[in-house]
Specification:
Strand order of the largest sheet of chain A: 1-2-3-5-6-7-8-10-11-14-15-16
Strand order of the largest sheet of chain B: 5-2-8-9-10
CATH topology of chain B: Immunoglobulin-like
Strand content of chain A: over 45%
Number of domains of chain B: 1
Largest interface: A-B, 35 and 32 residues
Largest sheet of chain B: 5 strands, mixed
Order of helices and strands of chain A: HEEEEEEHHEEEEEEEEEE
Distance between the termini of chain A: 23 Å
CATH topology of chain A: Porin
Helix content of chain B: 10-25%
CATH superfamily of chain B: Immunoglobulins
Order of helices and strands of chain B: HEEEEEEEEEEE
Number of strands of chain A: 16
Number of strands of chain B: 11
Radius of gyration of chain A: 20 Å
CATH class of chain A: Mainly Beta
Oligomer: heterodimer
Number of domains of chain A: 1
């Protein structure tokens, strides 16, 4: 039963983390690895993460005379992977980002949208732990990769040149990622960054547990802006609700988090650029024949520290679909 | 495969279009500044004359705004406004109100509020749609 599905989930773990980093702290899920490594095959995936934002309690209505406040942030990720062997795989990921924001001029808000290509990720995954029995299984893997500076960094230039009261500079921005309010939202960082991650999957009969964590080491990018290192993690527990030769469906309950300290601009800390978020929500994972796999999830922010952020994430929606060829 | 792809793309499109564009704040903008003009009596919150006062809540009808470090405040009032609106000003030792006459059809109103002797708040000057208005307030009290 679960052998192919377990391989699939194992690969999900291995590439979920790397994909998450491709979208900065917004954790995308790459369903390509729901299938597991299949030596000599390619996988193409499309993933979407849509995050809605809300004002923090610190930000009162009508407290911004001029500025920008993000309302939603969408990252559509296109990934192409190649399985070198049953244990090794490589993947390239390119995100396309769309953000909706309120442009506030003299207290009047006008909702606008802009879009662009984000930073590309190239990652490798290795699955050294692969124990599968009838009653139980345990899989574990690691990921490493690079984030390349392919995205537009124009907003960072605006951040570095902004004059006037600090509040105006803070309100203009959003992060590269989930939270916002005082942090630069830019499609790219202009920096070469390094990521590492670990994934574990355990199964006992029809129940399963998935866990992953990843850390990104940031370097200075364009306009003397350096994003802080960030940590992402998630834990999910679930159950197979449908299990056939041709298709499988599993549902899980997940808790996840993303954490980052303050960014630096020309060596000085950027106030309000740090965040710490905790999310909970359900996930649905599925496979169809031997080529298709996917995931749908919704996450609700339930905790974390705002720490000066005026806009915080509220709900995240994740969709992912992959095809093996 | 085609059915799965169509479902996925439909869901993707739904998310992408979930947050559409639009404008808010098409009503009348009421904004201004709050300046100390000799009314400061509270030891803790004393401001120098001429100094802009931050952290003070200014409200009218169903909207409020807190003055920033430049003493600026503002909000947009939707719908048809009454000819006179009551401004309440609270915070930093100030608890006052002022009645302002708004001309019909005005879209931008700027009020220079001043905290005067006795604790009242008066309108130093008022502009409506860029033009200075002479007789601009009904009455005011602390």
């Amino acid at each position: 039963m679960g052998k192919s599905f377990l391989s699939l989930l194992a690969a999900l773990l291995l590439t979920t983390s790397s994909v998450a980093l491709a979208c900065e702290p917004c954790a995308l899920f790459n369903a390509a690895m729901l299938r597991g490594h299949s030596a000599g095959n390619f996988t193409f995936s499309i993933s979407e993460q849509f995050t809605e934002f809300d004002r923090s309690e610190e930000l009162e209505e009508n407290s911004i005379r001029d500025g920008e406040l993000v309302r939603s942030y969408s990252t559509t990720q296109f990934a192409l992977g190649y399985d070198i062997s049953e244990s090794w795989g490589v993947q390239a990921t390119l995100p396309f980002i769309v953000r909706h924001f309120d442009e506030i001029k003299r207290y009047r808000a006008d909702t606008k949208e802009d879009a662009g290509i984000g930073d590309m990720y190239v990652t490798a995954s290795y699955l050294p732990l692969n124990i599968k029995n009838v009653e139980w299984s345990l899989l574990g893997g690691v990921i490493g990769g690079l984030k390349l500076p392919t995205g537009d960094t124009g907003v960072l230039g605006d951040v570095s040149r902004e004059e006037g009261p600090e509040e105006r500079r803070l309100f203009k921005h959003h992060p590269v990622g989930s939270s916002t309010g005082g942090r630069a939202l830019t499609f790219g960082s202009g920096s070469l960054d390094y990521l590492v991650g670990i994934n574990v999957l355990g199964r006992y009969q029809k129940t399963l547990i998935l866990a992953d964590a990843q850390y990104t080491f940031r370097t200075e990018g364009d306009y003397d802006y350096e994003f802080a290192d960030d940590l992402l993690w998630s834990i999910a527990a679930g159950y197979y609700i449908f299990l056939e030769d041709e298709s499988t469906v599993a549902v899980t309950a997940a808790i996840s988090g993303d954490h980052k300290e303050q960014d630096e601009l020309a060596g000085a800390d950027v106030p309000g650029s740090q965040f710490s978020n905790i999310y909970v929500g359900p996930q649905l994972l599925f496979t169809l024949n031997d080529r298709i796999s996917g995931l749908a999830a919704v996450e609700f922010r339930t905790g974390g520290s705002d720490q000066g952020s005026f806009i915080v994430p509220d709900v995240r929606y994740n969709l992912s679909l992959s095809y093996l060829f | 495969m085609a059915k799965v792809l169509k479902t996925f793309l439909a869901a993707l499109l739904l998310l992408q279009t979930a947050c559409g564009g639009g404008s808010s704040g098409n009503g009348t903008l009421i904004e201004g500044t709050l300046t100390e003009a000799g009314g400061a009596a509270h030891r803790v919150f004393r401001h120098s004359e001429g100094e802009r006062i931050d952290g003070v809540r200014v409200c009218a009808i169903d909207q409020c705004s807190t003055t920033d470090d430049q003493g600026q405040w503002g909000f947009v009032l939707d719908g048809i406004l009454p000819q006179e609106i009551l401004l309440t000003i609270e915070g930093h030792g100030i608890d006052a109100s002022a009645v302002i006459e708004i001309p019909n059809g005005a879209s931008d109103v700027f009020l220079d509020l001043q905290h005067v002797e006795g604790g009242a708040v008066e309108v130093g000057h008022m502009t409506v749609d860029g033009a200075e208005v002479g007789d601009h307030s009904g009455h005011h009290h602390g």
